[in-house]
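Quick log. Single chain, no ligands specified.
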Amino acid sequence: LVLEPYQLGFYIDAKGIVVTTQEKAAEQSKARRAPGQSTSDKKDDAASPDKPKEQGAADDNLRSLNIVIAEHVLMWDGKIVTWEEVVEGLRAIRKEQGKPIHPSFKFTNGAIKVGRWNLYQAAAYDVYKELFEPAGMNIGSMSPGAGERYDKIRVPADLIPRPEDVRVGVVRNSAGRPVTVATVLLMPDDSAMPVMLRPNLSLRDTLDEVWVHTDKEGRFKIACPETGYRLIVLSPAGFAQAPVPKAGEQAEIQLLPNCELQVSSTDKSTQELGISVHLPDMKEGHDGFSLYEIFVGEQPRTIRLPPGRVTLSRAAKIGKGATQLTPAQTFDLKPGEKTVASFRPPADEEDDDSE
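-> predicted structure:
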C-alpha cells in the first residue's frame, strides 16, 4: 500500500496538542477557492452523489489566497514563508490572472498579542493599490482553536508528524464503491464549537478544521491521537462518523445516506435561513454542524445534511452587518429521510403572534 501521495492534516500529539500540517498539505489547499470569489452552490449540489465534483479540479497548479499570520511564523498553503515571499507570490498570481486579486489575511490571537496585527496590516496596505484594488482584501482573526494550532509552529520541523501517529482509512458508499473527494475531518469528542459548512457540505473555512480529502480510491491519511477525537466524513454521497483507528489498523468507513431538507418561501420573497445539526450522541448544547447564509426565494431549495436533530432558523439583519438567528422549526431526521419546510414573510408571522 503506497501512502506517499495522501496529504496529512494538522498533527495532534498524544497530549492533544496540535502542531500543524506536513508540507504536502500545501497541495491540498491549492484547490481552495479564495474568500471573496464567487461560488455556485447549484453546481456543487448537482454533482453526482457517488462522484462529487472535485473542488478546484481545473486549478491544481494555483495557490490559495489564504495567508495565516501566527505568533512566530507566516504560513501559506502549509509552508512557512517570509513576507517577501508572500508579496512575490501574490504579485505572480496578480500577473497571471491579469486582474486585481482578493487575498485573505488571518491573524491568530498569538500574532495579535505580539503586535503583528498592526505590522502586517500596514504591510498589506503598502501593496493594496498595486495588487488588490478594487477587488479588496480580507483581514481578520482566526478562531481561537485554529489559531492555537498555528501559534505552536516555530520551525519547519514542527510540520512533520510522527509516523506512529498517522492513521489511514478508506471511505465507501452504501454499494461498497470508493468515494472520491470526501472530506474527512477530526471532531473533538467534547467539541463546543460546531463545524461550519456551506450548503454543498464543503467546509466554510478550511483553516479552522483538521481535515483531508479522500483520493480516487477512497483512501485517506491523517495524523491524530487514538483518543479524544472521532472521524467525521462529509460528502454529497453521504455521511459517517467513526472512531479513530489504532496505530497500524485501517478505518473501514461506509457512508449512510444524507437526509434532505427542502425549504421554500410561501410568497417567493427572498428569505435568509440558518441550519444547525446536532448529532445524536453529542452533549446537549453542542451542535455538530452549522450552516448560514442560506437564501430561498422563487424556487424551493433542497439541502443535503448529516442526519440528526436539525434546527432551521430565520436570519434577520440587526444592524452594523450583524445577523441574528431565531430558531423556527426542528426536525429529527434519520439517514435518508426527507422533509419539507416553508416560511412565510416575517410580517405575516408577526401578525399571527399579535392575534
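The longest strand covers residues 308-319.
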